[in-house]
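Chapter summary example: a protein plus 3-methyl-2-oxobutanoic acid.
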Amino acid sequence: MSVAKKTFKKITTHVLQEMKARQEKIAMLTAYDYTFAQIIDSALIDVILVGDSASNVIFGHETTLPITLDQMIDIASAVVRGVDRSLVVVDLPFGYYQGDGKTALKSAIKIMKSSGGHAIKMEGGRHIADYITRIVNAGIPVMGHLGLMPQSIYKYGTYTVRAKEEEEASTLLEDALILEKAGCFAIVLEKIPAELARRVTETVQIPTIGIGAGPYCDGQVLVTHDMLGINKEFSPRFLRRYANLNEIMTQGIKNYIEDVKSGSFPTIDESY
Ligand code: KIV
């Protein structure tokens, strides 16, 4: 019996760069487990982000701050096992890189070695640029993240749109250039005005991936549980829901409960 050969091209950071060059949009979604990763990868997504949004989505915390490096590694390892084609980017969680370059490099290496992920993501601009260069020099691809940075939520005090004023917008644009120079292969732009995202996208050579940053970015990312309507509490303007899984799941579970209670499940045909 012949084994069917896999014919897909694996997505690498170089592929993303080529996609920007030919103006092909990059699609990215989050995943936090093996089964979701398999489904998302099979649907031919370009990038899977093992986001520290797992802190909210998986562990039920109010912010992304509490999740630990070991928790991120466990989640990322499961995701990597479900992926054949996509580039898997893993968030460096809060508290494991902000202090100094040595700690940042140690955390990045631990993620790469233990999870099998292909790249990491870090929130911040000029203040972490040296750490990023150190990590990139060690051979680890780094995705940057500017605009709304949820790991700094207690500094902002709110999740509203960032960089609406020119001063913050210019700083963000400078930071994007600094991240590019530091060696980032792409930058997430979260919740900033569309026109600013356009300026950044046209200024840097590396791909920008937007979330709540309008249509001019080189790619888009959403949290899978939000865009599939599993989580129904979160509905910001930027979120488009592609399914209403919460309702479908709730109805399925209710039907099951009813069948068990009434004795109609299982039937003899469903027995041994
Ligand atoms: O953790 C996450 O899911 C993210 C995306 C929102 C970009 O950083």
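Key point: The pocket of 3-methyl-2-oxobutanoic acid is lined by residues 30, 49, 51-53, 91, 188, 190, 211, 221, 223 (CB under 6 Å).
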